[in-house]
C-alpha cells in the first residue's frame, strides 16, 4: 500500500477536531481539516466498511454479544495504554451479562509520514507479538499478553522515544505462560506481518485515522434516541462520533471516557 497513511473516510458535515485531538487523547495518522461543529444527526451518518467479526478475531467476552466493541489499537500508543483500563472496566460491567464483547484489531502507527518520520517504529513488531501469543497459547494467552504489555509499557515521549524495551517482549511471553523459545521463533519469523497489515488496512477502510478508535458493532439498528446522545457527546467533548448509514455501527474516535460508552450502550440495551 501507499506508505503515506490516508483515511478513506470523508467526515461529512463539519466537526471541530483540531483542538479536540489533544483533549480526547488520540493520535491521528492524518488530521482532517478543522471545521465547525455538526448541527444535525444526519451530518454524522457515513458508510463504515469493515470485515465482520468472526472466530478469527481476538474476542473477550461473548462472541454472540448484542454489542461488540471493535477496538483498533497500537501497542506503542500512549493513549491506547490509558484507554485499556477503560475497556477493562466496560467489560467488568457488561461482560458478565454477555451483552457486550471486546474485539481487538491492530492498527500500528509504524508507517512513515510525508517527511519520512515514523511515529511508533516498534508498533508493528509488538502487534505481531500479540499474534504469536495467541498462536502459542490461544485466546486467553492473547489477552493476558496484551493486558501485561499495556500495563508495563512506557508512553512514547521525548524521554522514552522508543517506548517499550523490545527485550521485554519474551519476558511478557513468559509471564503469559508461553514457551519463550517458540515465542521468539514466531516473532523472528514475522509470520503475522501480513495479518497485521490486513488489519491496518481494514481499519483504514472503516474510517479509522488514529488510535485508539472503537467501532461499536450492533446486532440490530441503533434506536433513535442514540442520535441525541451522540450529538450531546460531540458538543460536550468536541469529538467525531459517526453513525453508519445502516445504524449498525458507531465509530468513536479517541480515548473516550467510560461514561461516553455507557451512555450509548445503555440506550441500545434498553430496547428489547
Number of strands: 9
The fraction of residues assigned to DSSP E strands is 5-15%
Q: Report the principal-axis shape.
A: globular
Order of helices and strands: HEEEEHEHHHHEEHEEH
Low-confidence segments, given as residue ranges, are: 1-28, 30-41
First CA to last CA: what distance?
43 Å
What share of the residues lie within helices?
A: 25-40%
Query: Which structural class fits the helix and strand makeup?
Result: alpha+beta
Kindly report the spatial arrangement of strands forming the biggest sheet: 2-8-9-7-4-5-3
Major beta sheet, specifics? 7 strands, mixed
SS summary, helix count: 8
Radius of gyration in whole Å, from Cα? Answer: 18 Å
> Would you tell me the overall average pLDDT?
86
Account of the 3D structure:
- This protein is an alpha+beta fold and 272 residues long.
- Helices cover 40% and strands 14% of the residues.
- The protein has eight helices and nine strands.
- The chain has helices spanning 20-23, 78-94, 123-152, 168-175, 180-189, 193-206, 225-237, 258-269; strands at residues 27-28, 45-46, 58-60, 67-73, 100-106, 210-211, 213-218, 241-244, 249-253.
- The chain has a seven-stranded mixed β-sheet with strand order 2-8-9-7-4-5-3, sandwiched between helices. A two-stranded antiparallel ribbon has the order 1-6.
- Strand 8 and strand 9 (249-253) form a beta hairpin.
- Helix 3 crosses helix 4, helix 3 (123-152) packs antiparallel against helix 5 and helix 7 (225-237) packs antiparallel against helix 8.
- It is globular and about 50 Å long.
- The protein starts with 19 loop residues before the first helix and ends with a helix.
- Residues 1-28 and 30-41 have low confidence and may be disordered.
Amino acid at each position: 500500500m501507499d506508505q503515506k497513511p490516508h483515511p478513506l473516510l470523508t467526515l461529512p458535515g463539519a466537526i471541530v477536531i483540531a483542538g479536540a485531538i489533544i483533549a480526547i487523547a488520540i493520535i491521528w495518522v492524518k488530521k482532517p481539516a478543522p471545521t465547525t461543529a455538526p448541527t444535525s444527526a444526519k451530518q454524522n451518518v457515513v458508510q463504515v466498511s469493515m470485515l465482520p467479526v468472526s472466530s478469527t478475531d481476538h474476542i473477550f467476552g461473548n462472541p454472540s454479544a448484542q454489542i461488540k466493541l471493535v477496538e483498533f489499537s497500537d501497542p506503542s500508543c500512549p493513549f491506547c495504554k490509558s484507554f485499556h483500563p477503560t475497556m477493562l472496566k466496560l467489560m467488568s460491567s457488561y461482560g458478565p451479562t454477555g451483552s457486550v464483547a471486546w474485539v481487538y484489531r491492530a492498527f500500528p502507527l509504524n508507517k512513515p509520514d510525508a517527511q519520512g518520520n515514523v511515529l511508533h517504529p516498534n508498533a508493528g513488531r509488538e502487534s505481531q507479538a500479540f499474534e504469536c501469543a495467541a498462536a502459542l497459547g490461544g485466546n486467553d494467552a492473547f489477552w493476558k499478553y496484551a493486558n501485561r504489555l499495556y500495563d508495563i509499557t512506557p508512553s512514547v515521549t521525548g524521554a522514552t522515544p522508543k517506548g517499550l524495551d523490545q527485550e521485554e517482549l519474551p519476558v511478557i511471553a513468559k509471564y503469559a505462560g508461553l514457551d519463550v523459545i517458540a515465542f521468539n521463533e514466531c516473532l523472528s519469523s514475522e509470520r503475522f506481518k501480513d495479518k497485521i497489515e490486513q488489519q491496518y488496512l481494514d481499519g483504514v477502510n472503516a474510517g479509522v485515522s488514529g488510535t485508539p478508535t472503537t467501532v461499536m458493532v450492533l446486532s440490530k439498528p441503533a434506536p433513535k434516541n442514540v442520535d441525541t446522545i451522540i450529538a450531546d457527546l460531540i458538543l460536550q467533548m468536541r469529538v467525531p462520533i459517526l453513525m453508519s448509514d445502516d445504524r449498525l455501527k458507531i465509530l468513536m474516535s479517541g480515548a473516550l471516557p467510560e461514561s461516553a460508552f455507557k451512555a450509548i450502550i445503555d440506550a441500545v440495551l434498553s430496547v428489547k
